[in-house]
């Protein structure tokens, strides 16, 4: 009597695609944070180099902080997505998949908080 072996290849590939989507999201967040910090430094240098001070950039420190927060949020997203990938991989192998509402809640709260901070930052610089 042959015992049927379940093939979970499609599930593992879907898990990897989901992980890679989170990696792209994390890279985008970190890249945007890096660009924000570098652009802020560029504007500060331009305003200091301007002889007639027609270009003035008020540097209140928020750009650097915002960029660093975005980079940190990207790192947190990357770590959480890897932990989730490993957890789901284990669940697929044991045929006992359970959703991960805690991770999704943490990511949602973190991204909503970061979005509120960015909105506050942008409104303050209008």
Automatic annotation (TrEMBL):
Topological type in the membrane: Multi-pass membrane protein
Keyword entries, A-Z: Cell membrane, Membrane, Transmembrane, Transmembrane helix
Isomerase among keywords: no
InterPro entries, alphabetized: DUF202 (IPR003807), IM_YidH-like (IPR052053)
Transmembrane helix is among the record's keywords: yes
Transmembrane feature ranges: 21-43, 63-85, 97-123
Compartmental location: Cell membrane
The DUF202 domain, residue ranges: 11-90
This protein's name: DUF202 domain-containing protein
Organism: Chryseobacterium nepalense
């Amino acid at each position: 009597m042959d015992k049927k072996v379940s093939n979970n290849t499609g599930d593992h590939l879907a898990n990897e695609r989901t992980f890679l989507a989170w990696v792209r999201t994390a890279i985008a967040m970190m890249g945007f944070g890096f660009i924000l910090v570098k652009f802020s430094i560029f504007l500060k240098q331009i305003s200091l180099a301007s002889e007639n001070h027609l270009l003035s950039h008020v540097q209140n420190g928020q750009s650097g902080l915002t960029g660093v927060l975005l980079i940190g949020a990207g790192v947190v997203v990357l770590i959480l997505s890897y932990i989730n990938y490993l957890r789901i991989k284990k669940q697929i192998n044991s045929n006992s998949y359970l959703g991960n509402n805690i991770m999704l809640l943490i990511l949602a709260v973190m991204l909503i908080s970061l979005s509120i901070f960015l909105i506050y930052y942008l409104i303050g610089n209008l």
